Amino acid sequence: MTQPPCPLCASPGGVVVFQGEKFRVIRAQEAGFPAFYRVVWTAHVAEFSDLSVADRSLCMAAVNVLELALRAHLQPTKINLAALGNVVPHLHWHVIARFDWDSHYPSPVWCPAQRPVDSAALAVIQGRLEAVDMVIKSELSALCPAL
């Protein structure tokens, strides 16, 4: 049985915020969730434990940079972190700023919506994303050299 091509190897998977040798950070295009980021490991590995100790540390440092930037600049109600990989078995971490007004809160983003999207609140967050992306890129560039 042939495996389908990996979507995270075949394309960036969203707006590239940072590209380093070991990983990239993208802002996913998820409707209703403007501050939905992914740390995507460059090498095609399925599990976090496939990484060396140093690479696991680097990966989590990148996740931490995203969490801190989102908290500081967007003041979300909560940050969701996930590394499921059930559908795409390529190591990636979801870092998602959640707000009590979002259509799915407090349920996970993958559950059915509980209310309509708050377009005004969504627009405010979308207006801040370029500045947040610049902070993330700067912090990650300091953490590791970019390509």
Helix content: 25-40%
Which fold name is given in CATH as the topology? Answer: HIT family, subunit A
Largest sheet: 5 strands, antiparallel
CATH homologous superfamily placement: HIT-like
Q: How far is the N terminus from the C terminus?
A: 36 Å
Mean pLDDT metric: 93
Level-1 CATH class name: Alpha Beta
Question: Measured on Cα atoms, how large is the radius of gyration?
Answer: 15 Å
- Approximate strand percentage: 15-25%
Number of strands: 5
| Series of H and E elements | HEEEHEEH
Describe this structure in words.
- The protein has 147 residues and is of the alpha+beta class.
- It has helices at 7-10, 53-74, 119-143, and strands at residues 15-19, 23-27, 36-41, 78-82, 92-98.
- It has a single domain (7-143), classed as HIT-like (HIT family, subunit A, 2-Layer Sandwich).
- Helices cover 35% and strands 19% of the residues.
- It has a five-stranded antiparallel sheet with strand order 1-2-3-5-4, covered by helices on one side.
- The protein is globular and about 40 Å long.
- The mean pLDDT is 93.
